[in-house]
Amino acid sequence: MKPPPFEYHAPASVDEACALLGSLEDAKVLAGGQSLVPLLNFRLARPAHIVDINRIPNLDRIYERDGGVAVQALVRHAGVEDSELVARVCPLLSAAVRLVAHRVIRNRGTVCGSLAHADPAAELPAVLLALGGHVVARSTRGERTIPASDFFTSVMQSALAQDELLVEAWFPASPKKSAIAEESRRHGDFALAGAVRAGDRLALFGVAPTPVLADPKNPTQGLQPSGDVEASPEFRLHLVQVLTDRVFAA
Amino acid sequence: MKVNGVPHPAPVDPRRLLSDHLRHDLGLTGTHVGCEHGVCGCCTVLFDGAPIRSCLILAVQAEGHEVMTIEGLAVPDGPLHPVQQAFHECHGLQCGFCTPGFVLSVVGLLAEHPHPTPEQVDEGISGNLCRCTGYASIRRAVARAAELSKQ
Ligand SMILES: Cc1cc2nc3c(=O)[nH]c(=O)nc-3n(C[C@H](O)[C@H](O)[C@H](O)COP(=O)(O)OP(=O)(O)OC[C@H]3O[C@@H](n4cnc5c(N)ncnc54)[C@H](O)[C@@H]3O)c2cc1C
Ligand code: FES
Ligand code: FES
To answer: Residue A123's CB: how many other CB atoms inside 10 A?
Structure first.
């Protein structure tokens, strides 16, 4: 199918984008479009306004700060994958981003878009949570920092307000003993379940409405994963145990 | 936007997908459309040199950028591009529906990895679906394309 009608805006600065988001009713940010455009094509999303941030200059930097790496809103997955800085400071993020979709999708999709989209089966939200990182949100009301532990609120829901633009994500340096493991039907598909280890912290994805922190000694405790045609709840719990063992053996 | 080196105005309707713009407004029907949600890879084009899905980008977003479709890869009646030549030699296609997307994805893959390992080949073509070949001949075509590109 084709996208429903909408009004298109291409702001030239973060301030202009925030002003649009603050004044328009029912506006959606368009970053890489790798999640939003499919939703438009299927008409699962019908926003009145699209605010395309791709024309904003100087919003595509990866830089080191506060003992970690900051990834701005227009950094594509492929940019992080190829970044020597990320490989040096946060190799866990380099490894995780390679599990996101396929290279052709990663050429366009953004890291911040993946966080804002908050898909419970996505890799990067769980990485941000395991590392204890944060995101920076901007609006005409000002700027605020939201820790990962407060950011993912429900299935595809985040703590971002309607008028806020996620301007950057900050990933702390990954501890020496870090790893990510997931199980999916085919390479590049969303995971049935996944585990991220950062030192002695464990985050799981694909098994709850949001990524969750878990006890490495008892990772399935309190989990009630859903079942679907691809995996039953029992199989997902089994995967959690196997994947946890795998990342802690690494 | 420039398409295969030729400047074109962007469409007026912002909801026009790049894939539809190429096919319906510019008549470049070599870009195929299978799924319109990024899964099949048939609609892959080069955007400023890197492969992307043309079904997941609005045509207005291509304003100021360079798009290359399968039609732009070789000059008419000239020799085939090495990747096209390799698909031809290795029977990397049967019905051909998936082929433009595969060829452009492989052009992108070889730009990044001129000498891809078998793993890199598999990973590089994993985002494209083919219902005919069973992929074995496509893998061979990628290896052959790497050889031809060296020459
Ligand atoms: C075939 C296919 C396979 C995929 N497989 C995976 C996978 O295995 N794992 C995975 O994690 N993802 C996968 N994805 C999704 C991909 O990672 C997307 O790139 C990502 O989810 C969204 O990033 P984007 O920049 O494309 O965002 P968009 O599609 O542009 O936006 C997504 C949502 O986030 C909002 N948003 C985006 N950026 C901002 C911002 N800066 N501020 C505020 N709101 C914002 C948008 O309004 C929208 O609601 C897949 C996609 C496809 C098409
Ligand atoms: S039509 Fe674009 S990926 Fe299938
Ligand atoms: S050759 Fe027919 S789908 Fe690939």
So the answer is: 27
Write out pLDDT tens, residues B4-52: 999 999 998 999 999 999 999 999 999 999 999 999 999 999 999 999 9
Residues forming beta bridges with residue B6, ordered by sequence position: B3
CATH class, range B82-150? mainly alpha
Question: What's this model's pTM, rounded to 2 decimal places?
Answer: 0.96
Helices (H), B25-116: 82-89, 99-112
Nearest to B67 by CA among B143, B124, B132, B1: B1
The distance in angstroms from the start CA to the end CA of chain B is 32
Best CA proximity match to B41, nearest among B21, B70, B84: B70
Pick A7-52's CATH classification: 3.30.43.10, 3.40.50.300, 3.40.50.1110, 3.90.226.10. Answer: 3.30.43.10
Interface test with chain A among B45, B53, B106, B129, by most A beta carbons within 10 Å: B53
Rounded Cα–Cα distance for residues A202 and A189 (Å):
22
CA-nearest residue to A9 within chain B is B14
A73 within 8 A of A61, measured Cβ to Cβ: no
User: In this structure, are residues A108 and B52 in contact, taking their beta carbons and an 8 Å threshold?
Assistant: yes
- CB under 8 Å to B67, separation ≥6 — which residues? B1, B2, B3, B4, B18, B22, B45, B46, B47, B54
Nearest CA to ligand 3 atom 4: B130
Pocket flag, ligand 1, residue A128 (CB < 6 Å): no
Residue pair A200/A207 in contact by the 8 Å Cβ criterion: no
